[in-house]
Specification:
This protein has one domain: 3-Layer(aba) Sandwich (Rossmann fold). The strands form 2 sheets. A 6-stranded mixed β-sheet has the order 5-4-3-6-7-8, sandwiched between helices. The chain has a 4-stranded antiparallel β-sheet with strand order 1-2-10-9. Helix 1 packs across helix 2. The protein is α/β, with parallel strands linked by helices. The chain is built from 3 helices and 10 strands. The chain is globular, with a radius of gyration of 16 Å. Bound molecules: inosinic acid (IMP). The site of inosinic acid has 17 residues, from strand 4, strand 6, helix 3 and strand 9. The site of inosinic acid (IMP) has 17 residues, from strand 4, strand 6, helix 3 and strand 9.
């Protein structure tokens, strides 16, 4: 599928599922070299990161405890400018090596907020990995250690990312089409 319609908008294929798979293999190999013989807690930021997390951890060759935190800062195609965190239970990460797994860093607001929360629970190290980053949209200073793909600041869906709750199940990543004409 090269073009999809979600709600009222058309999206074109931007990163294929094969290209994502290849990149994740490389990211997993890098983490495996770095954390060999260590025990690590991977924390995925829901909802968007669930597919990236599922694929990435299967390329992580070290002891891994998998957890999730829920954050929301987007409505439709725009950041609301505030982050809502929903984290059941106490986050005790004292002396743990933590990998924070995010789907996309746009303004950096969500990641800045989540990183502060994680650092407050005294991990022994923190590594931030995001599948996508829009460097031109970054407004908040935030730690980013590994990026799958740097992309322009256009809206994308698929592979876990949504447009108003739809599109997460698309196997590739699709970008908002510059041509919204249904006749294309
Ligand atoms: P930030 O807080 O502005 O960095 O935005 C991060 C969050 O906004 C991500 O976790 C996504 O949920 C959402 N987001 C940002 N850009 C996009 C996009 O292009 N498509 C879908 N969701 C996005």
């Amino acid at each position: 599928m090269n073009r999809v319609k979600i709600h009222d908008k058309y999206f074109d294929i931007y990163i294929t599922k094969e290209a994502i798979e290849e990149r994740i293999k490389v990211l997993g190999a890098g983490l495996s070299a770095r954390f060999r013989d260590k025990k690590v807690v991977a924390i995925g930021v829901l909802n968007g990161a669930f597919i990236f997390m599922a694929d990435l951890i299967r390329h992580c060759n070290f002891d891994l405890d998998v957890r999730f935190i829920k954050a929301k800062s987007y409505e439709g195609m725009h950041s609301t400018g505030k982050v809502e965190i929903d984290q059941p239970g106490h986050l005790d990460l004292t002396d743990e090596h933590v990998i924070l797994v995010e789907d996309i860093i746009d303004t950096g607001l969500t990641m800045q907020y989540v990183v502060q929360k994680i650092l407050a629970s005294n991990p022994s190290s923190l590594t931030v990995i995001t599948l996508l980053q829009k460097p031109a949209a970054l407004k908040h200073k935030v730690q980013i250690d590994e990026v799958g793909f740097s992309i322009p600041p256009a809206f994308v869906v698929g592979y876990g990312l949504d447009y108003d709750d739809l599109g997460r199940n698309l196997p590739g990543i699709y970008q908002l089409s510059s041509n919204q004409n249904p006749e294309q």
